[in-house]
Structures are given as structure tokens and as C-alpha cells.
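Reply to dn_fold:

You asked what the input looked like. This is it:
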Amino acid sequence: MTGKHASHGAENPGPEDRDIAGFEHNPIPHLDGNAAAGPLWEVFRFDIVAAIGRCKHCGAVRAFAEAKVYADAPGIVVRCSSCEGVLLRLVETPTQFWLDLSGLSYLQIDREG
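and this is what came back:
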């Protein structure tokens, strides 16, 4: 879309949910994967930060602790530190957890850890 009626950023859409990842000159602050350890303990009952995951978007294989966590929302959003693709979303209500892992091809968990 071009011309005077084009909206900002419409010419070059980025990865999934790029609008919530901030912009080059106005980034949204993020934390590392350790920030998600507490809430994810409630779901998995193991320490997820040492788990190895593969990003479905770019194929990067990294420790969960290296991911970018955005926690200033109703839930948490975890993004790939390589491509900013969404790896995981978690929202907690008083009675339920809503978990989306669709951005991970796999999550390798060490049984001895």
C-alpha cells in the first residue's frame, strides 16, 4: 500500500504480531526466559529455563532462558531471540491456564535437571 492513505508500517509487515514487539526506535522492554519460570512452573511443574526449544519460524535452537519475555500484558508472550517470532503465550485466569506453544517445533526437557 502506498500513497498518502497508507498506514504506518503497512508497506513492510514483519513477523507474526510484529505490532506488539515494538518498533526500532521505540522498543518494548523485555526480560529473558527466566522471567517466565514462575508462571510456567504452575503449568509444567519443572524448571523450563534449561529446556531447549526450536523456533518454528526461523529454526533457531536455543535454551529457553535465552528467549525474550514480554510480561506487560494480561499474560506473557515469549519470543525467539533470533527472529522475534512468538514461541509461547500464557494467560492465567482464576480457574484456567491458556497456553499456546504453536511457535515451537519442539521443547527438549532434561529429565535429570
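Residues 1-15 have pLDDT under 50 and may be disordered.
Hope that clears it up.
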